[in-house]
Specification:
Chain lengths: 408, 140
C-alpha cells in the first residue's frame, strides 16, 4: 500500500489527457521529466486569456492591455513568492531553462579572461554544457568537470579541490534529468562563494518536486521551465540576484528593453525589462502562475512524499526483473528511474511498451557524458509525477516483462 | 524475383498475423536472418544517422546487382533493416532507385514511416537508395 494524504483519483480528473487511449490501451504517462501534463485549471487560464483579454502588455493605455499587464505581473509575483525571491524584478521571464542559461553564459563573456576556470558537473544536460563550452571558446577560459561516482553522486571532495581563485563560475543542476540525483547545492553554492565564484543552478528538474527557497540558498542564478511543472511549453524564468542582473549586459536588443533610443545611443530599461526584449509569451507567463497555484494547492510536501513512495515501490518492483539494472542510485533522488535490461537495447523496450500504451523515454536523455561514463548507449527512463498511481507502476513492470520475453 | 514480387511476398507473410505483437515477433525473427555486415565494415562512416540505435549498412556490387549487408544493436531495428534488405538486396541499382516502399504501410509498420520517428526507417531507405545511385553511376 502506498500511503498518501492526496486523493490521487480526484487529482487525475483534473488532467484530461490522462484519460485518453494510446494504441488501444489506457495511457500510462511516465515521461514527466521530459514534460509534465497540464491540468484543466491551467488550460482554462489559457483559454480565458485568449477569449477575454489578449493584448500586448506594458505599453497600451486601453483596458485589455492593462488587464493583460496586471495578470502577467501578478504571475511574476507568484513566482517571486513561490521561490522566496527578494524582489519581483529579479524574476526574468525567458522561453525556458535553455534560454535562461544562454542569457547568463552570454552575459559572462565580458567578465571572463584566459586562465579563468568554469566548473560544470559531470551529470549535466547538454543545455548546461554547450553554452559554457561556447563561453569558454569565446573567452579562453577553461571548462573543468566535477566528477561523479557510480551511484550518480557528485564527488564533493573533488569539487572542493577543483575550486580556486581561478574559478569564476560554477554550474550544476539541482536534480539530474537522466538519473534523478538531488545534488547538495547548498554546499556547492557556499563553497563557490568562499572561492569568489558565482553559481548558476539549473532547477528545471527540481522545481516539479522541490520548492526551493532561493534566498536561503543564496544562489546567484536559478533557472526553471514552466512545462516541467504543469505549465505550458515555451516559458520559464531566470532568477538572478539584483546585483548580478545589473552587471550583466542585455542579451537581446528590441522593444520593451529600452528606456530611450536615438540613432546615436540607446539607454536600457530597468530590471526586469532590460532582459525581456520584444513581446513576451504573455499567456504562457500567466499560465505559469496558474500552474504554481495548482501545485501549491496540492502542496509540495505531500507531492514529494507521495512521489517518493511511488519511487520506492517502482524501484522494488522493477528490480524483481532478472537482468534489470538501475542507473542512478543516489540516496537522495527524485522519482526518476533510468534502467536497462542486460542484452536488450533501450530503444527496443521503449518501442514495445509504447505499443502497450506506456510512455517512457529512451535514449541518452541529452546527457551523453553520463551514458559514456556508464559505457551504455542510453537507458529507458520512467519518471513519475504526483498524478501517477501504483497501478500504473504495475503496468510498467508488466510491460517491461512482456518486452523482455519478446526481445530475449 | 523482382523487388515488387518480394514485397508482395513479405506482405503475404505479415497478413497471417492479427495483432501487433505477432507482427513484432515475426519482425524480430526476420532480424535474426539478416545477412550480417562484416566486422571490418562496422565503422562510424557506415552508421546511418537519425536512428536512436546504431545501424550499419554496407553495399557492394556482385555483377550488375547490388548486395547489402547490415547490423544493428537494437533488435527491432535489426528486423526493420532485414525487411528492407530482403526487398532490395541482389537487385539492379536502377530497380532499387525506382522502387517504392508502400509495402511498409501494408505490413502494419506505418508508424515507423514518419520522418520524425527516432528509429530512422526513413533514413535507412534513403541510405539504401543513395548506395544504389552511387553504384548506378559507377556501372555507367
Amino acid at each position: 500500500m502506498i500511503e498518501t494524504t492526496l486523493d490521487i483519483q480526484t487529482i487525475r480528473k483534473d488532467f484530461p489527457i490522462l484519460h485518453r487511449k494510446v494504441n488501444g490501451q489506457p495511457l500510462v504517462y511516465l515521461d514527466n521529466a521530459a514534460t509534465s501534463q497540464t491540468p484543466q485549471q491551467v488550460i482554462d487560464v489559457i483559454v480565458d486569456y485568449y477569449q477575454g483579454y489578449n493584448a500586448n502588455i506594458h505599453r497600451g493605455v486601453h483596458t485589455l492591455s492593462q488587464e493583460a499587464t496586471d495578470a502577467y505581473e501578478a504571475a511574476r509575483q507568484k513566482i517571486q513568492t513561490h521561490f522566496n525571491i527578494a524582489k519581483a524584478h529579479e524574476v526574468i521571464f525567458t522561453s525556458g531553462t535553455t534560454d535562461a542559461i544562454n542569457l547568463v553564459a552570454n552575459g559572462f563573456t565580458s567578465f571572463l579572461k584566459k586562465g579563468d576556470e568554469v566548473l560544470v558537473s559531470a551529470m549535466e544536460h547538454h543545455s548546461n554544457i554547450v553554452p559554457w563550452q561556447m563561453l569558454c571558446e569565446r573567452t579562453g577560459a577553461t571548462l573543468k568537470v566535477i566528477p561523479m561516482n557510480l551511484n550518480g553522486e557528485l564527488i564533493m571532495e573533488e569539487y572542493h579541490k577543483l575550486l580556486s581563485e581561478k574559478t569564476k563560475l560554477v554550474f550544476c543542476n539541482h536534480v539530474s534529468n537522466a538519473l534523478g540525483t538531488i545534488n547538495p547545492i547548498k554546499e556547492i553554492i557556499d563553497a563557490a562563494h568562499q572561492a569568489g565564484a558565482a553559481v548558476l543552478i539549473d532547477g528545471a528538474q527540481a522545481a516539479p518536486h522541490i520548492k526551493a527557497d532561493l534566498q536561503a540558498l543564496d544562489v546567484d542564478f536559478y533557472t526553471v521551465s514552466a512545462h516541467k511543472m504543469c505549465g505550458p511549453t515555451g516559458v520559464g524564468i531566470l532568477y538572478g540576484k539584483e546585483e548580478w542582473l545589473n552587471k550583466l549586459p542585455p542579451y537581446q536588443g528590441g522593444g520593451e528593453m529600452i528606456a530611450e533610443v536615438t540613432f546615436e545611443k540607446t539607454t536600457y530599461a530597468d530590471l526586469p525589462h532590460k532582459f525581456e526584449a520584444g513581446t513576451p509569451n504573455i499567456c504562457g507567463g500567466i499560465a505559469f502562475g496558474a500552474a504554481l497555484d495548482y501545485m501549491n494547492h496540492i502542496g509540495f510536501d505531500a507531492i514529494a512524499q507521495y512521489e517518493n513512495e511511488l519511487l520506492q515501490y517502482a524501484t522494488e518492483q522493477l528490480l524483481t526483473i532478472d537482468g534489470l539494472k538501475i542507473y542512478g542510485t543516489a540516496t537522495n533522488k527524485t522519482s526518476v528511474i533510468s534502467f536497462n535490461i542486460k542484452g536488450i537495447h533501450p530503444y527496443d523496450i521503449g518501442t514495445i511498451v509504447d505499443k502497450l500504451g506506456i510512455a517512457v523515454r529512451t535514449g541518452h536523455h541529452c546527457a551523453q557524458p553520463i551514458m559514456d561514463f556508464y559505457k551504455i548507449p542510453g537507458t529507458v527512463r520512467a519518471s513519475f509525477s504526483f498524478y501517477n498511481t501504483k497501478e500504473e507502476v504495475d503496468r510498467l513492470v508488466e510491460g517491461v516483462k512482456r518486452a523482455k520475453n519478446m526481445l530475449l | 524475383m523482382t523487388i515488387k514480387e518480394i514485397q508482395e511476398e513479405i506482405v503475404d507473410e505479415f497478413s497471417m498475423f492479427d495483432d501487433w505483437m505477432q507482427r513484432y515477433e515475426y519482425m524480430i525473427e526476420l532480424g535474426k536472418s539478416l545477412p550480417l555486415i562484416e566486422e571490418k565494415y562496422k565503422t562510424d562512416d557506415n552508421i546511418i544517422k537519425g536512428c536512436q540505435s546504431k545501424v550499419w549498412v554496407h553495399a557492394e556490387l556482385q555483377g550488375d546487382k547490388l548486395v547489402f549487408t547490415a547490423d544493428s544493436d537494437a533488435i527491432i531495428t535489426k528486423g526493420i533493416i532485414a525487411i528492407l534488405i530482403r526487398a532490395f538486396s541482389h537487385q539492379k541499382p536502377q530497380d532499387i532507385i525506382d522502387a517504392n516502399v508502400d509495402f511498409i504501410d501494408e505490413i502494419g509498420l506505418k508508424e515507423h514511416l514518419s520522418p520524425t520517428r527516432a528509429n530512422g526507417l526513413v533514413s535507412m531507405i534513403k541510405q539504401l537508395k543513395l548506395y544504389a545511385v552511387a553504384y548506378q553511376t559507377q556501372l555507367k
